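Morning, I've got a small favour to ask if you have a moment. I'm working through a protein record and want to make sense of it properly. The fold is given in discrete form, as structure tokens running alongside the sequence. Can you walk me through what the tokens say about the fold? Thanks so much in advance, here it is:
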Amino acid sequence: TKCSCKNIDMFKTLEDLVKTIRDRKNSNLEESYTNQLLNNKKLSVEKAEEEFQELLEAIKINQNQIHESADLFYHLLVLLESHNIKIEDVLQELEKRKSKSGLEEKANRS
């Protein structure tokens, strides 16, 4: 699906990013920041938390939200991958939830 606003193929971008992250698993640990995150779950969690806080601050001051959103999105994908959570599984879960209201879905978890 393309984003009509800027003609960006969102899913291609997502696929490319996930592929790059997965490819980094085989790269040199000293030369790849992504590989360092993938091999250090604690660091990966800390970075995702840090990036989330930076996004919240950017929203609060109405500045740099897109940059901070991209940082968080990247770090979330790395965090998932480092914990063997596949984005494909997350997207399938979202697809399952599509036909339910958020309130209905939340009630079913209780």
